[in-house]
Write a structure and sequence with these properties.
Blueprint lengths: L2 H13 L2 H8 L3 H15 L4 E4 L2 E4 L1 H31 L2 E5 L4 H15 L5 E5 L2 H10 L4 E7 L8 E9 L1 E5 L21 E4 L4 H10 L7 E4 L2 H9 L5 E4 H4 L3 H4 L4 E4 L7 E8 L6 H24 L1
Parallel strand pairs: 3-4, 3-5, 8-9
Antiparallel strand pairs: 1-2, 5-12, 6-12, 7-10, 7-11
Helix pairs in contact: 1-2, 1-3, 1-4, 2-3, 5-11
């Protein structure tokens, strides 16, 4: 016995006709009739009385109808419960440009897991354009991206500002630049510079900051986390938003530090984006809220640091 057989019987009873039931169920009438007959043979009962004027429940069928309805109601409740469980325990995919992975993302995921122990969280490192494309196509639920103040906001996404920071020079504590309270932009040309690869917002920012000038030597890397590791190993300095450096484990251990850049008032925003949709999975919505709460805590600490 299959659930759809009971659903077909209920439809025929409600509509009073095999033809109308077949139309509603998008089946051929012979296929519907054969399915009902198979169920009747299995139960050993003629559920329907078939006449030229239509089909209706037989006396035996009417006795069984409450049981059929109870089964279908139970199936509906099961599907509803399974759907809710799916909403709670599904995988949530987050794309990030890595600008705030450690100070923001990791504590957020840790807090989220305490309330959603069954939900898997997949973190995908990518460039902003790749994150936007995956959000549009449904491959990601949430995206963390950098945004230079003054840039246009994409209309296809719901954007929430999490953090507002300023670009700083991330340096090794033994670097001569670390001895300065504020680093002039011209000093970036004299030391090895670790630049973000083309496609990252901070790559565009540094090019604009240097105004066509080139440093004495430069590296190119894919994301802030590798950039900070290279700084910690003494390979050079890199320009990142302050919220990507303050509170990072490398900064807390004294492996890296940061200095503000002189004569620059640029603001960098960390945005949380998701596709505009009428229905949002509960787990993704809850993780969105967890990001907002963590960002409020982190933003307060950044303000105190300033």
């Amino acid at each position: 016995m299959r659930t759809e057989q009971l659903e077909y019987i209920a439809a025929v009873t409600r509509l009073g006709s095999l033809r109308r039931a077949a139309e509603e169920l998008h089946l051929s009438q012979p296929a519907l009739s054969e399915t009902v007959r198979n169920l009747e043979r299995e139960l050993g009962v003629d559920l329907l009385e078939r006449k030229r004027s239509g089909a209706r429940m037989s006396a035996e069928g009417r006795e069984l109808l409450p049981h059929i309805v109870n089964v279908l109601d139970a199936v509906d409740r099961l599907r509803g419960a399974a759907g809710e469980q799916h909403r709670i325990s599904r995988m949530v995919r987050v794309g990030t440009v890595n600008a705030a992975t450690v100070p923001l993302l990791i504590p957020t995921v840790q807090a989220f897991r305490t309330t959603h122990p069954l939900t898997q969280v997949e973190i995908v490192g990518a460039q902003q354009s790749e994150i936007h494309r995956a959000l549009s196509e449904g491959g990601l639920d949430l995206g963390l991206v950098n945004h230079l103040d003054g840039d246009d906001m994409p209309a296809d996404f719901e954007s929430t500002e999490l953090l507002c920071g300023r670009p700083v020079l991330c340096v090794h504590p033994d670097s001569p630049l670390a001895a300065k309270a504020v680093v002039p932009v011209s000093d970036l040309l004299d030391e090895p510079l670790i630049a973000m690869r083309s496609g990252y917002v901070m790559h565009r920012y540094v090019r604009r900051l240097l105004d066509g000038d080139a440093p004495a030597f430069s590296y190119s890397t894919d994301g802030a986390e590798m950039g900070k590791l290279m700084v910690a190993e003494g390979l050079g300095s890199t320009v990142l938003p302050d919220f990507s450096v303050i509170g990072d484990p490398l900064e807390r251990r004294g492996a890296i530090t940061y200095r503000p850049l002189s004569d620059d008032t640029t603001r960098v925003l960390l945005m949380l984006r998701r596709r505009r949709a009428e229905s949002v999975p509960r787990a993704a919505d809850d993780l969105h809220g967890a990001f907002v709460r963590r960002a409020a805590e982190l933003g307060g600490r950044l303000t105190r640091q300033d």
